[in-house]
């Protein structure tokens, strides 16, 4: 053995989640400049181990030794970062609403709130260099939003970002090539070898054994949470690794003996074209297990989804389905398990009809049915009433398979049903396949493990959305599958064609992107309403006319902007109407006579908003609930200050609002300033990047070392500041205070931000759009008056505009998908 | 032995969060007795009668919330006012039963429109119902210029004066509807499908649940219950007014949440919502008899609400970072 400098040693690590032991005495030695290939079946604990190394998970037991041993209790993500550990995560830790270079900067910049002038330009150059270092000629514009990148481009960014870490000592790559094209994979392998030459250690986790063979020096095999074999790559072979992984699967004997009989066809697909899929033809007969194979991302999942959805409504005449259909997914978290339920409910949800008598679910029957499957599949649990989440992955999967079998469908789609399942359970699952087959059911099987395809009678191999080959019976083995999958790949047309697409940007595209811009719709609506107003009453277009018409819009501008900040963070403010009322009375009653006290109150108020943010973050209570409760508090405080309407606006405040700005009416000036300020905060400032990131992927921001808590407090305080500005404006407009008068702003502010182009899913803002939306909504009542329409219809018009705006958005988004 | 009993008890409470809302109601009742110096069944029944409206509304709201994806029905406050007006007019013209049926049918239509916009235009439920609420409110404003919304005699007698075994029939309605809701949510396919959809819509769809159908039903149920409530409330107040549903917006969301309904969806509690509504009503009653100024009442109500909500929302066990 060569004598290399050791970088990190893990000894006897234990990590336990509830009932599952993810790591069980795992040990690992990492030397400097070494590339370690980490292999193991799904659920072996590889990803958990990586999260232990990167300090994301604290461990129950074990030792972590760099030059000196670290205290495992205090070992966290920051300490791991300081030690020089960076990780490209499998589930991609990018913020999709930020641009590529911003995603680099989230990791690279110091944590001061503001950057130097021109930091963005510099950041773009630097980020581009980082990308080129790993992937020469990467072809990615760093200004692109991550959500607009292809999956493979995202993975490139993720890897390059991790590799660009300053003071990098250990780079963890978790399934780095799952969506990369073959030439990018070659680039990656070359780049990490260069990195290793500079003394950086690399952990390379992959299911693709040929890649491990090409890229790594050492191999470590994990199974069941511990290391089962480790050694130099030259000491082993791919076959041996497969054997060590315990992947040997007994092939079933009865396969391929099916007699062709057209009457037995359960599913027939002729010339299906949909999305990724091109001219797919296939047939499935009773008593048959049909595999769908191919390289990852060749359209297998799309095909399964199309087949399944044809059971609901026949979208395509191309799919002829002659039976009920059920679906079993291996992606238990996202597509399978109902986490709040027990085993019983999880199994029977697909077959409730069988337990119903006289329209109601019969408890006894229900339990019996569940017990039947529980016994049949030999669950390892205390009983049918156990929570599903207390089970191991394999047993959860059994529940899902039972669910698929229980509803008596003749066709069962199995999408990677043995993902993360131990060998024993796997064999049991294969037995169930056989049983289903004997009962005359048909199974469509898709698996990420090629070996599993040996269970099938026939296998269709997909490539780039097309069926390129069909294997039958004894022809089905890993070698043939791989050969078939890689057919036609030599030209590598996919990546080049997509690159060509990216470069085509004509006038048409630019026009389309204008239409799709978030602020287009609200600005258009505003101009339309103003156009109608001016057409009906030309005097509106005068300086005074506009001042009068838009004066009442200013409060809505601010309160909607405040609402926008909360929505960006993933929350919603249900109490801002009352909050504006309270600020209103503070200003009208205290600011005039005791300015100091008034200012103190307002500062306290903003701090209370910040506290609300902290509370929402720390207790994980939905923002809607907290802000709802807070609305009572605002009302109460407002009533304490003044139980009855009254007061007066300070003269300086009135002076600001009635200031005669040259040529442009004051309300428009204020609105423009508000738009500019919030635009700068969210789209230009450094901390704005973090605010946006928190709304989209808080975990990624935290991993980069920014405090989620601080971000929440800042967001809520900015929102509180906007409420204060709104309160100041209403005081100036109404020249007095009334704590109860502005409750309707709460609903209006939500309507405004939605019209303005924001979305509830968080991280998506549009300051200019929101301001335009506020101006538009405020001009509706004038329009109705001019049109001589009953002013009672004002709210209805707002409602219709809202629905219309969202419908238009839906249509333009559809265009985007194509 | 002691330990397992303890564990079982805590498990039972974990599954039956409604017990806290029931206990809270009891405490409020006792406190009202302490403040007024008289502890009577009467105060409890009076407040339970008053709570009936909130119970009915909250049951619908709970159903929508349980359907998941952060759904909330913001239109019910306006539906209440609309149905109060519409039912009074229709009942005068065509009799009580046909009037009620048509009113509820109109409300069902509102639910169908909500479902259509939400499911087919892919507008989040909150925005859908907000926009719909705006439209309904306009309708209310239009109608209110033509009618006073005076209920027919028999409806106001039924809601105000009638006593069955010394108790207002509103209480029986609240209980009957609650029982029916319990059956619907926990004993039928729809109930199971609703909870499945609320936990994970994709998984539910793959398990054979018709999402569109389920969501439509939840919106319709919510709107129809709001319509029924509005009709009764119009009778109780002896007339309809434009903002009669306004005070129910916040409480109709708070009552289910206090009772253990998850804002994230997939978890509901009929008993919890029942007692949550009762608790909120008694809380307001207590604040009223306390003779505190309105400001302090609101402060206490808001503060208590936040504390109770904080306590009743179970802490998420986040495994994955």
Automatic annotation (TrEMBL), chain A:
Highest taxon listed in the record's lineage: Bacteria
Gene3D superfamilies (alphabetical): P-loop containing nucleotide triphosphate hydrolases
Record has Cytoplasm as a keyword: no
CDD domains: ABC_Carb_Monos_I, ABC_Carb_Monos_II, TM_PBP1_transp_AraH_like
GO molecular function annotation: ATP binding; ATP hydrolysis activity; transmembrane transporter activity
Keyword vocabulary terms for this entry: ATP-binding, Cell membrane, Membrane, Nucleotide-binding, Repeat, Transmembrane, Transmembrane helix, Transport
GO cellular-component term (any): plasma membrane
Compartments it resides in: Cell membrane
Topological type in the membrane: Multi-pass membrane protein
Transmembrane parts of this sequence: 519-536, 548-572, 578-609, 621-641, 661-682, 709-730, 742-760, 767-787, 793-812
Pfam families named in the record: ABC_tran, BPD_transp_2
Domain ABC transporter per the UniProt entry, residue ranges: 8-249, 261-489
Principal location: membrane
Name of protein: ATP-binding cassette domain-containing protein
Organism: Candidatus Thalassospirochaeta sargassi
Automatic annotation (TrEMBL), chain B:
GO molecular function: transmembrane transporter activity
Listed transmembrane segments: 17-37, 44-65, 85-113, 125-144, 164-185, 219-239, 270-289
Compartment list: Cell membrane
Recorded topology in the membrane: Multi-pass membrane protein
GO cellular component: plasma membrane
Keywords, in A-Z order: Cell membrane, Membrane, Transmembrane, Transmembrane helix
Pfam family, one: BPD_transp_2
Domain of life: Bacteria
Classification via PANTHER family: ABC TRANSPORTER PERMEASE PROTEIN YPHD-RELATED-RELATED
Record's protein name: ABC transporter permease
Species whose genome carries this gene: Candidatus Thalassospirochaeta sargassi
Source species taxonomy: Bacteria, Pseudomonadati, Spirochaetota, Spirochaetia, Spirochaetales
């Amino acid at each position: 053995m060569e004598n290399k400098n050791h970088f990190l040693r893990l000894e006897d690590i234990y990590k336990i989640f509830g009932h599952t032991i993810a790591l069980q005495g795992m040990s690992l030695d990492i030397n400097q400049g070494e590339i370690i290939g980490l292999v193991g079946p799904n659920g072996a604990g590889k990803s958990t181990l990586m999260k232990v190394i990167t300090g994301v998970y604290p461990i129950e037991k074990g030792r972590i030794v760099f030059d000196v041993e670290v205290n495992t209790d205090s070992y966290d993500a920051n300490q791991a970062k300081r030690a020089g550990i960076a990780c490209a995560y499998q589930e991609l830790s990018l913020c999709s609403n930020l641009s590529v270079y911003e995603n680099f900067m989230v990791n690279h910049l110091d944590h001061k709130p503001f950057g130097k002038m021109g930091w963005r330009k510099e950041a773009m150059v630097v980020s581009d260099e980082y990308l080129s270092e790993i992937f020469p000629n990467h072809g990615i514009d760093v200004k692109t939003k991550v959500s607009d990148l292809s999956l493979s481009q995202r993975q490139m960014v993720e890897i390059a970002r991790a590799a660009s870490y300053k003071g990098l000592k250990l780079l963890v790559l978790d399934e780095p090539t799952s969506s990369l094209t073959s030439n990018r994979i070659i680039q990656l392998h070359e780049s990490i070898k260069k990195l290793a030459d500079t003394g950086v250690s690399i952990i390379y986790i992959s299911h693709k054994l040929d890649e491990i063979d090409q890229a790594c020096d050492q191999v470590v095999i994990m199974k069941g949470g511990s290391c089962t074999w480790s050694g130099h790559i030259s000491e082993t072979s791919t076959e041996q690794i497969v054997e060590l992984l315990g992947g040997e699967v007994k092939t079933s004997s009865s396969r391929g003996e099916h007699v062709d009989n057209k009457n037995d066809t359960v599913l027939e697909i002729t010339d299906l074209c949909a999305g990724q899929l091109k001219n797919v033809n296939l047939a499935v007969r009773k008593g048959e297990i049909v595999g769908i194979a191919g390289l990852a991302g060749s359209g297998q999942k799309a095909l399964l989804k199309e087949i399944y959805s044809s059971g609901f409504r026949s979208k395509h005449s191309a799919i002829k389905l002659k039976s009920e259909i059920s679906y079993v997914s291996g992606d238990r978290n996202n597509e399978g398990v109902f986490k709040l339920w027990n085993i019983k409910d999880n199994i029977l949800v697909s077959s409730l009809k069988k337990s119903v008598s006289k329209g109601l679910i019969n408890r006894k029957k229900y339990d019996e049915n569940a017990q039947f499957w529980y016994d049949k599949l030999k669950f390892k649990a205390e009983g049918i009433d156990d929570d599903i989440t207390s089970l191991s992955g394999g047993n959860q999967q059994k529940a899902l398979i039972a669910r698929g079998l229980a509803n008596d469908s003749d066709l069962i789609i199995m999408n990677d049903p043995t993902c993360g399942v131990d060998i024993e359970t796997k064999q049991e699952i294969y037995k169930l396949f056989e049983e289903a087959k004997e009962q005359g059911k048909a199974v469509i099987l898709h698996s990420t493990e090629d070996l599993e395809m040996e269970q099938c009678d026939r296998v269709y191999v997909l490539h780039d959305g097309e069926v390129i080959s069909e294997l039958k019976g004894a022809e089905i083995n890993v070698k043939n599958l791989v050969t078939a999958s890689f057919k036609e790949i030599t030209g590598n047309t996919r990546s080049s064609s997509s690159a060509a697409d990216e470069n085509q940007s004509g006038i048409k595209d630019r026009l389309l992107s204008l239409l799709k811009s978030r602020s287009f719709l609200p600005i258009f609506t505003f101009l339309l309403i103003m156009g109608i107003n001016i057409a009906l009453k030309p005097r509106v277009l005068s300086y005074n006319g506009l001042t009068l018409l838009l004066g009442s819009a200013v409060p809505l501008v601010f309160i909607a902007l405040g609402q926008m900040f909360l929505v960006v963070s993933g929350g919603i403010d249900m109490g801002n109407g009352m909050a504006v009322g309270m600020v209103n009375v503070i200003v009208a009653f205290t600011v005039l006579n005791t300015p100091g006290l008034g200012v103190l109150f307002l500062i306290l108020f903003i701090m209370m908003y910040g506290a609300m943010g902290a509370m929402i973050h720390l207790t994980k209570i939905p923002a809607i609930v907290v802000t709802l409760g807070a609305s009572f508090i605002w009302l109460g405080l407002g009533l304490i200050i003044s139980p009855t309407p009254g007061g007066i606006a300070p003269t300086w405040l009135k002076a600001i609002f009635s200031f005669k700005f040259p040529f442009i009416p004051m309300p428009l000036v204020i609105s423009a300033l508000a738009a500019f300020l919030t635009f700068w905060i969210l789209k230009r400032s450094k901390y704005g990047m973090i605010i946006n990131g928190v709304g989209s992927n808080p975990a990624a921001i935290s991993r980069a070392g920014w405090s989620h808590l601080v971000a929440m407090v800042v967001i809520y305080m900015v929102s509180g500041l906007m409420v204060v500005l709104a309160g100041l404006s209403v005081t100036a407009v109404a020249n007095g205070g009334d704590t109860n008068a502005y409750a309707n702003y709460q609903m209006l502010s939500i309507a405004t931000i939605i019209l303005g182009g924001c979305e509830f899913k968080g991280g998506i803002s549009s300051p200019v759009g929101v301001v335009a939306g506020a101006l538009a909504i405020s001009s509706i009542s004038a329009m109705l008056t001019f049109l001589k329409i009953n002013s009672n219809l004002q709210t209805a018009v707002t409602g219709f505009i809202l629905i219309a705006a969202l419908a238009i958005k839906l249509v333009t988004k559809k265009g985007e998908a194509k | 032995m002691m330990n397992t009993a303890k564990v079982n008890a805590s498990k039972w409470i974990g599954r039956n969060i409604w017990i806290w809302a029931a206990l809270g109601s009891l405490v409020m009742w006792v406190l009202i007795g302490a403040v007024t110096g008289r502890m009577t069944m009467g105060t409890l029944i009076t407040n339970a009668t008053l709570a009936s409206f909130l119970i009915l509304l909250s049951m619908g709201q709970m159903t929508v919330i349980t359907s998941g994806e952060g759904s909330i029905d913001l239109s019910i406050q306006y539906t209440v006012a609309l149905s109060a007006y519409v039912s009074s007019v229709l009942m005068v013209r065509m009799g009580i039963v046909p009037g009620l049926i048509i009113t509820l049918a109109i409300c069902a239509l509102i639910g169908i429109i909500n479902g259509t916009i939400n499911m087919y235009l892919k507008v989040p439920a909150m925005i859908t119902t907000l926009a719909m609420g705006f439209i309904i409110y306009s309708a209310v404003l239009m109608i209110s210029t033509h009618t006073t919304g005076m209920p027919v005699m028999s409806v106001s007698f039924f809601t105000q004066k009638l006593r069955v075994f010394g108790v207002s029939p509103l209480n029986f309605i609240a209980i009957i509807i609650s029982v029916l809701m319990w059956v619907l949510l926990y004993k039928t396919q729809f109930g199971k499908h609703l909870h499945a959809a609320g936990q994970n819509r994709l998984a539910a769809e793959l398990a054979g649940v018709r999402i569109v159908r389920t969501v439509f039903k939840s919106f319709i149920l919510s709107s129809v219950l709001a319509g029924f409530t509005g009709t009764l409330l119009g009778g109780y107040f002896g007339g309809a007014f434009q903002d009669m549903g306004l005070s129910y917006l916040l409480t109709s969301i708070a009552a289910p949440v206090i009772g253990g309904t998850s804002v994230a969806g997939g978890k509901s509690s009929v008993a919890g919502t029942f007692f949550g509504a009762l608790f909120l009503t008694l809380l307001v009653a207590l604040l009223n008899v306390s003779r505190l100024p309105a400001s302090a009442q609101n402060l206490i109500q808001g503060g208590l609400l936040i504390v109770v909500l904080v306590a009743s929302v179970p802490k998420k066990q986040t495994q994955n970072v």
